[in-house]
Amino acid sequence: MFETAVIVETVVKAVIVVAVVAAMAGFATFIERKVLAFMQRRLGPMHVGPYGLLQLAADGIKLFTKEDIIPQNAIKPIFMIAPVVAATSAFVAMAAVPYFPEFTLFGYTIHPIISDINVALLYVMGVASVGIYGPLLAGMSSANKWSLLGAARAVVQMLSFEVVSGLSILAPIMLIGSLSLIDINDYQSGGISNWLIWKQPLAFVLFAIAGFMETNRAPFDTVEFEAEVVAGYATEYSGMRWGLFFIGEYANMITISVLVSIIFMGGYAPLGFIPGAVMMLLKVSFWIFLFLWVRAAWPHVRPDQLMWVCWKVMMPLAVVNILITGFVLI
Amino acid sequence: MYETVAFYIFSILTLGMFGIVVMSKNALYAMSALAGGMIFISGFFFILDAEFLGVVQIVVYSGAIMALYAFGMMFFDTTRDVSEKMRSKKIAYTLSILSAILIVAILCIPLVSESIEASYPAIENVGNIQMVGLILFTKYLVPFELAAIMLLVAMISGIVLASKKMDEHLAIEEDECEMLKEGK
To answer: Which of A74, A122, A143 sits opposite B55 (nearest CB)?
Structure first.
């Protein structure tokens, strides 16, 4: 009976996470248009509903009802499964992420984490990086030169940022001595001065940059940059398959925001009179805003510049950071 | 009961995926099925409570197969079937079935004789990573360091092979800028 209860609880949690995050991802597209418009002194979507709020519904209806076109020479099964890979890997990665402190509802303690495995950090990073298979498969099966270029860039990008994000995260792990995100969160409880961002500023910056690369966000959105490769891997997609790619991208943005908040910014520890859950929401919102801000503020980089900065600047810095942390620990 | 169900689901998926890898003539199908199969194998590790190995399986193989994709992209038109030269199907199938039976036999013999004993049994209340670390840095320290040296040698030789044109830029931006300045 106990086993069944655990399974039911897990399924309920999983459904809630997928529903809430998918809705947040949709809403983030609206916020993105509004924030970019604000920074460029435009109004953004204004006509559908109050302040253009219903634009979201209009976009959703359009995506769901649009014809799903599959090009003649494309490899059909792979072409069809690629967006699903992008979206599911983004959601599967969330299984080991704790969102809020545990709370009691109707006398039943709820841990807002789907599965508390003791290698949660590695799991989230590994599964999230599987998400780059989505663009790769899409580009290789589309039978389109722009798509293929997008896929090639996806491979290059993935092989570059993986090293940096892995090495940069190693130094905080050495300090904490655990890969569980709950342990990492508890390590920093007790005020802003305990946040790891003060002890590991370099690792923080490197991990944040690698996070931008992982989510294909500007200035590192080389796989889908319009001026160079049309729409990159997504050139041949239409309708909801195209939409799934972007649900995956925004879900990944949320995952990275949660990860940075937990690892470097104290996670869901309460601050003064502000409860932990609210702190978490504030931090994640700030990070989403930062993603949009950077997109508005910085120009794109070329793929070779991306590789250059990864292998010749960021990776040596990460290794030096690990070395210094090791000496300090000894 | 749930573990049994999960085990059978993962076995069917893994076998199916690797079947596609061997049977398919399309490089893209084969590589995608290989990636899928490798990720399904990690499911077995999670069922056995070896989460660390499961995650390492995902991380290592997703990266490794990504490199395979890069080669596939460079050498093949992945939207076309590869024409295979197979002289005799009978020999290929017989040999593969024989080697499959041999592997199953090798793995099953210790099970039949019931002489399996964990030389390093799992310690209670110690995490996955700590257990791996304990054994890696005591019993298997020398092989571990040797592997590290081998990887270092491979890395250095790779750099030496690739370093001939390392100080040249991939793009020719400097030349272009000068040409623009001179008004050519």
So the answer is: A122
